[in-house]
């Protein structure tokens, strides 16, 4: 279908004409200080915020510990296929953590509805909001939303203090130039549309577990 | 799927011969007397107030946050042409499409033609007030395309054939039992204890089928990021994620005013939007989408379309005095705090955008038929005090009133009353005489038992209330005789005794 953008120039002309009259200046000349409290200890803050976001934050000392943590989470899930981002790090981890599970790798396409869990990497962890920053390179778009459980493996080095830092870094790295999608995930899927009562697992994962390897 | 979903009646469509203003007054009277409705809203708003206060307390300097957000939006709106072109260029470079729509009809026609040409049978929609504004769902349904609202609140009001009650929580006016009854009737499954967890699980199950069947996902946009060329969408439920991940076509429909200059601006806007919208530190899924699936990506839509809707926004932009109304980030905070909204409810406004922001915006977008909404306010200023982008909402309501009256709008009797008032205020003796006449006339009228009747000039008050006790003397006389003697005048030697009453 060819796009006929016949209104484009008319809209732009109206905007330009309208902007000929400048907006009145802002009256308030008050000087304001920092908006957010500075993050002192990023790891501690990340753990606190994960708890507030109803996420699981599992700290591990090394790759063996991470594989063990992953195995424990997988063992707690019902039988069935697990979708895993096709990455050498996760291939090594999953081999140790689960030899029984049927694995669907992201190189085979997106996760299926029957997937019990998805396992992905993250681009960054954000201490200020207890968030996981993922992009399409972390197993695709569906990898963090289709299955009832999403497991993220990351290292402490990926932790940034706040959202602004994470976004500046994403701009500087050209992350959005290389990915069609990115998302800051701050907990499991939820809704409070019925009488403002919080219910987890509205459409996406009911459980979000983040394995953070210290000193990796 | 056998669920039969009716097409909702678009907000703003009046089925009777009443004017929009008459319908508003009728519905406001009915709704404000509905005690069940009032209790449901009170409970919801109390819950919101507590969360909102907690959220604000988490931010070190809330006023600094508001000021920062105001500056971001001000920069974007006052350079809108430049940022729109920057955004468009980036999207096109990634293989996306950008369509500029002058009005809702153009936008609907583009999306419908796109859907028909691609053989789309099912559409999943995440919450988008702009698609409500342009009445998209009925247009697609008429073309034989099944449309599923996937935000839980939107899904509920769609099943009820209603417009959203609130821009953030569309089904705020319903309790769990009403939703249980609705699901039993429309989805054919009963949840006797009306447990919200089970109700959500039922909706999840039904909508999962739609997500995996749909060929097209339609979303709104909370922000358009100029330097990244990305659409920013925030949802808690994840329906926005699924709608933009699973179908093979993604269409993002948005007003042109959603622009922001830089990606890092979201570092302030995302937490402020979440705090004002729901009291959360940040919404669960804060998503950025800049194009269709790339060749090296595992999944995602093959096509990405952005529809940029004007629909009156460029006209409002030309009004420098009210331009800042386009800064609105649709958090709903002004609705939640508004004493009028809390009593008359969202549907009474009969507009896509209810509450104070809707009362300011709608006359600009939909014309003078909705100018009565400029008067749907006590001008208490609560809306302005909570607006996260510092929009001077109650002053803009006054601007709208002024412009409306200047253009010849308003009731002739009211204009006459204000002329009389002005004349009296400029002539103190006339004012004093008027007060004297009024006191005597009312005393006579009330003595005859005619308070609250058509003869009573204070009828608006006294028809449902005890008449206000009439003073025996004017304020000027009271001042001279009593207050002067009490020595109050001595405490303020520089001040004049002032005019009468």
What does this structure look like?
The complex is a heterodimer of chains A (216) and B (501). Chain A is of the alpha/beta class. Chain A has a single domain (40-213), classed as NagB/RpiA/CoA transferase-like (Rossmann fold, 3-Layer(aba) Sandwich), CATH 3.40.50. Chain A has six helices and twelve strands. Chain A has helices spanning 8-18, 42-52, 63-75, 88-97, 163-173, 175-178, and strands at 56-60, 82-84, 103-105, 117-121, 124-126, 131-135, 149-155, 159-160, 181-185, 190-191, 199-200, 207-213. In chain A, helix 4 links the parallel strand 2 and strand 3. Chain B has 501 residues and is an alpha/beta fold. In chain B, helix 16 (355-366) runs parallel beside helix 18 and helix 19 (412-426) packs across helix 20. The chains are: A alpha/beta (216), B alpha/beta (501). Chains A and B meet through helix 1, helix 5, strand 9 and strand 10 of A and helix 2, helix 3, helix 4, strand 1 and helix 5 of B.
User: What strand order characterises the main sheet of chain A?
Assistant: 1-12-7-4-2-3
Q: Considering DSSP H and I runs of 4 or more, what fraction of the residues of chain B is helical?
A: 40-55%
CATH topology group of the domain at 20-145 and 208-315 in chain B: Rossmann fold
Roughly how many Å is the radius of gyration of chain B? 27 Å
CATH level-1 class of the domain at 20-145 and 208-315 in chain B: Alpha Beta
**Number of helical regions of chain A:** 6
CATH architecture of chain A: 3-Layer(aba) Sandwich
Number of strands of chain B: 10
Strand content of chain A: 15-25%
CATH homologous superfamily (4th level) name of the domain at 20-145 and 208-315 in chain B:
NagB/RpiA/CoA transferase-like
Structural class, judged by helices and strands of chain A? alpha/beta
Question: What is the level-2 CATH architecture name of the domain at 20-145 and 208-315 in chain B?
Answer: 3-Layer(aba) Sandwich
């Amino acid at each position: 279908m060819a796009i006929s953008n016949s209104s484009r120039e008319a809209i732009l002309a109206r905007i330009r004409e309208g902007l000929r009259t400048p907006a009145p200046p802002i009256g308030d000349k008050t000087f304001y200080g920092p908006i957010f409290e500075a993050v002192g200890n990023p790891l501690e803050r990340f753990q606190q915020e994960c708890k507030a976001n109803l996420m699981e934050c599992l700290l591990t000392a090394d790759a063996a510990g991470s594989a063990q943590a992953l195995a424990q989470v997988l063992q707690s899930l019902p039988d069935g296929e697990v979708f895993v981002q096709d990455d050498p790090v996760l291939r090594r981890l999953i081999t140790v953590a689960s030899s029984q599970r049927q694995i669907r790798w992201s190189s085979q396409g997106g996760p299926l509805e029957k997937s019990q869990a998805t396992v992905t990497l993250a681009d960054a962890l954000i201490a200020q909001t207890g968030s996981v920053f993922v992009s399409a390179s972390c197993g695709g778009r569906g990898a963090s939303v289709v299955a009832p459980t999403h497991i993220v493996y990351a290292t402490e080095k990926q932790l940034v203090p706040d959202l602004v830092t994470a976004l500046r870094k994403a701009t500087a790295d050209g992350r959005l130039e290389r990915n069609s999608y990115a998302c800051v995930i701050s907990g499991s899927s939820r809704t409070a549309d019925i009488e403002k009562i919080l219910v987890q697992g509205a459409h996406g994962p009911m459980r979000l577990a983040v394995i953070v390897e210290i000193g990796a | 799927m056998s669920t039969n979903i009716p097409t909702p009646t678009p907000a703003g469509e009046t089925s009777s011969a009443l004017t929009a203003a008459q319908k508003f007054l009728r519905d406001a009277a009915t709704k404000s007397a509905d005690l069940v409705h009032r209790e449901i809203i009170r409970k919801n708003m109390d819950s919101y107030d507590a969360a909102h206060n907690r959220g604000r307390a988490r931010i070190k300097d809330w006023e600094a946050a508001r000021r920062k957000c105001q500056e971001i939006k001000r920069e974007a709106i006052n350079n809108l042409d430049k940022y729109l072109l920057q955004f468009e260029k980036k999207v096109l470079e990634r293989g996306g499409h950008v369509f500029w729509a002058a009005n809702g009809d153009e936008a609907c026609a583009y999306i419908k033609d796109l859907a028909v040409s691609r053989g789309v049978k099912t559409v999943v929609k995440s919450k988008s007030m702009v698609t409500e504004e342009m009445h998209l769902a009925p247009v697609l349904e008429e073309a034989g395309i099944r449309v599923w609202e996937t935000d839980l609140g939107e899904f509920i009001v769609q099943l009820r054939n209603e417009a959203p009650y609130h821009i953030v929580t569309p089904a705020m006016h319903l309790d769990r039992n009403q939703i249980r009854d609705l699901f039993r009737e429309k989805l054919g499954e009963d949840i006797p204890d009306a447990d919200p967890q089970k109700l959500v699980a039922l909706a999840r199950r039904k909508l999962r089928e739609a997500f995996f069947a749909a060929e097209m996902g339609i979303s709104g946009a909370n922000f358009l990021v100029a330097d990244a060329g990305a659409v920013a969408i925030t949802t808690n439920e994840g329906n926005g994620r699924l709608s933009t991940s699973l179908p093979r076509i993604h269409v993002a429909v948005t007003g042109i005013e959603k622009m922001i200059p830089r990606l890092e601006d979201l570092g302030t806007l995302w937490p402020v939007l979440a705090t004002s919208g729901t009291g959360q530190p940040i919404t669960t899924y804060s998503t950025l989408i800049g194009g269709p699936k790339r060749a090296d990506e595992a999944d995602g839509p093959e096509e990405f379309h952005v529809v940029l809707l004007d629909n009156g926004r460029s006209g409002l932009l030309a009004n420098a005095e009210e331009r800042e109304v386009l800064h609105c980030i649709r958090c709903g905070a002004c609705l939640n705090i508004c004493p009028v909204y809390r009593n008359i409810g969202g549907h009474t406004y009969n507009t896509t955008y209810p509450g104070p922001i809707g009362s300011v915006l709608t006359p600009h977008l939909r014309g003078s038929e909705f100018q009565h909404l400029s008067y749907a306010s006590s001008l208490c200023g609560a809306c302005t005090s909570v607006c996260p982008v510092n929009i001077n909402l109650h002053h803009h309501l006054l601007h709208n009133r002024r412009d409306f009256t200047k253009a010849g709008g308003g009731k002739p009797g009211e204009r006459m009353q204000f002329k009389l008032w002005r004349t009296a205020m400029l002539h103190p003796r006339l004012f004093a005489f008027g007060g004297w006449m009024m006191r005597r006339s009312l005393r006579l009228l009330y003595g005859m038992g005619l308070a609250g009747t058509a003869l009573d000039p204070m009828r608006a008050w006294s028809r449902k209330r005890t008449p206000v006790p009439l003073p025996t003397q004017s304020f000027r006389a009271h001042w001279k005789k009593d207050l002067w003697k009490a020595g109050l005048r001595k405490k303020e030697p520089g001040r004049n005794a002032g005019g009468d009453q």
